[in-house]
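Sequence in, structure out.
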Amino acid sequence: MSHKINKKEAKAILDQELDRFRTMPYEDLKRTVGGEIYTTERTAPSGETYQIEIETVWENQSKQMVRVLGSADESPHKPLFWKIPILRWLPIYVSSVTWIFKRGPDGTDE
C-alpha cells in the first residue's frame, strides 16, 4: 500500500526537530560532529508518524563549518542496509524530505 507523503507536513515536523540544533551555540554544535545520529519519531496532526534523522558533519577538511543534515520520512522502519554508514550515502534509499544548514565559527548559518 503506497501513498504520497505530505511534504509540507513532514518539513514542518523536521523543522521543529532541527530547531534544537539551530539554537545551539557553535561550540556545542561542533561537539555533536562524529557523534550518534539523532533519531526520533513524531506524530503529525494528521496522525501520520514521521521518522526524523539529524546528523552533523564537518563541511570540509578545515573543520570550521558544521553541516547539519536532517531528513524526515513517513516510514519509521528503514531497510537493514541503512545501518551500514557507507551505504547511507548511496542512492539506494532517499528520504522523502531533507533539509541542510551550515554554521561557521562566527555563528552565522548558510
